[in-house]
TrEMBL record, chains A, B:
Transmembrane segments: none annotated. One of its GO terms (molecular function) is prenyltransferase activity. Belongs to the FPP/GGPP synthase family. Keywords: Magnesium, Metal-binding, Transferase. GO terms for biological process: isoprenoid biosynthetic process. It holds the Pfam family polyprenyl_synt. Its cofactor is Mg(2+). This is Polyprenyl synthetase. Coiled coil: none annotated.
Length: 325, 325
């Protein structure tokens, strides 16, 4: 059995019902919108976010979820989908999960509006049902994600970026939404418990590991066996490169900065940069930091009694680190 | 004294304090964001929306507003600003209020993210203060606005568009936000009264008149003395044209449809269409419908005792109809 199927097993029923509810949550009076959202739900991703919601909820409650859990998962997925639709507009991407993106099929104007529509539908689902505690978790995530993306634009191309700023960027732009999933799952079943904050921290740590893994793909062999080097080409400073910059001789540093700044369109030079970062231990360091975030996350889980849900969360943590795509 | 200054007089103090609070509501840890929002607040528009909030609140309460009124006005203005920033991206506009637009100065990617940030800041301002009744009013408006824009994209270029669909489009895309301003103003001072719904209806009627006026500008002389005809060039069907289409002979209709469909880039033909719509009474009809919406709005105000705030709202209604830009 594939690891993702193994993870889904203890929440199989919930995930099935969730899909129906998620589909319903996007309905509109406007026919064009229904055509577009139909296209979206039929090209769904791995659904990692609702999985985190249901697994944490069931681990905390001992196996039961409620309507708040379903609504929370729907809101998160609506907002995540809205973000992806907007991302494709801003990055001018024509593809998403192997299919055409919304902006490619229906143009930018419609894509921006569809994103806004999905966002407001998500918020209304919480408001109409009085899920104000869940709504707060979600709105903080929305603000942090947009701030994180903007922080990245402001800082990530600066050659003097520090490791701390790198962590702040990935915490805001990626970890905050996974943190929201886990704390929302907990909050949906135990509104006033200590678990909401503990699970937020757990999700944040996983999210940090997840993004470091993502950034490592740029330097490691991809599915067809070659590192992509896209981040280097875009002068995006991620952990392996930041480490190498801070841990090399003066003349090497000069060469590295010059390579990233002035020769990042030169394929051969990009390859050399990748090799240099590897040789300086940038990849090993990033992997070590990723493993530390994983350990901290598992330490939080250790406080909870054994259950199939906890086991699945451990699998999920390992999947984040070991995934190939 | 200019009419807008006359309208602002009874809420001068509130508008001054509002500006400060609105400015504060946009603050962020990200320096780039603060630079952009500083640019935005220094190029403010007519501030019609907060004016509606404060005038309705003071008319209902007899002259006092509270912190909820200020927060509500800020949220509305944050969301309105977010919408404008996104609009300029989708319409690829370089200009806004005579200055460069955000996308022109900082590119599309940043503009979409700034819009998302402003939206989430608005929502958090309501959530953090427990203004859930106000939040509901606002979220419905956000959903209706995006649906209205999408409905317009779907239907407004169809040559068989009905008058009813036209009203539905302008109700959703324009009237709904002015309706939200007025009902929010009322709700901020009298949470459980009948005024919230009455003021929502009042705002909706004004919003309808406002958009018909906007659509009329395409056919009437603008500031430099010429009708723009932009809607015709974009094959956007608005009330004057819809009326003319439904009230002319068969061969005339054929000519009109052919003109809009196949010759809408031909300046001479566009001029002929404008003249034809005028001659068929399309403008007179649209003005008459606009006047009816105005009358209905004033009828709602008639239920309230005289006050300087009510007088200012009447001036506002007239300004909507009589404005030159």
């Amino acid at each position: 059995m594939k690891i993702t199927e193994q993870i889904k097993q203890p929440i199989a029923q919930e995930m099935e019902l969730f899909e129906k509810k998620f589909r319903d949550s996007m309905s509109s009076k406007v026919a064009l919108l229904n055509r577009i959202t139909y296209y979206i739900v039929n090209r769904k991703g791995k659904q990692m976010r609702p999985m985190f919601v249901f697994l944490t909820a069931k681990m905390i409650s001992g196996g039961t979820v409620n309507e708040r859990t379903y609504r929370g998962a729907s809101v998160i997925e609506l907002i995540h989908t809205a973000t992806l639709v907007h991302d494709d507009v801003v990055d001018d991407s024509n593809r998403r999960r192997g299919f055409f993106s919304i902006n490619a099929l229906w143009k930018n104007k419609i894509a921006v509006l569809v994103g806004d529509f999905l966002l407001s539908k998500g918020l209304l689902l919480s408001i109409d049902n009085g899920d104000f505690d869940l709504l707060r978790i979600i709105s903080v995530a929305v603000r942090e994600m947009s701030e994180g993306e903007l922080l990245q634009i402001e800082k990530a191309r600066r050659l003097d970026i520090t490791e701390d700023i790198y962590y702040e960027i990935i915490r805001q732009k990626t970890a905050t939404l996974i943190a929201a999933c886990c704390s929302l799952g907990a909050c949906s079943v135990e509104p006033n418990g200590v678990h909401t904050e503990k699970m937020r921290k757990f999700g944040e740590l996983i999210g940090m590991a997840f993004q470091i893994k993502d950034d490592l793909f740029d330097y490691t062999d991809d599915a067809i066996g070659k590192p992509t080097g896209i981040d280097i080409k875009e002068q995006k400073m991620t952990l392996p490169l930041i480490y190498a910059l801070n841990n090399c001789a003066r003349d090497e540093k000069k060469w590295l900065i010059n390579s990233v700044k002035n020769h990042n369109k030169d394929k051969k030079r990009v390859k050399e940069v990748i090799a240099f970062v590897k040789q300086k231990g940038g990849l090993a360091y990033a992997e070590q930091r990723m493993a530390q975030f994983r350990e901290e996350a598992l330490l939080i889980l250790a406080d909870y009694p054994s259950s199939v849900y906890k086991d699945a969360l451990v699998l999920m943590v390992n999947y984040v680190i070991e995934r190939k795509i």
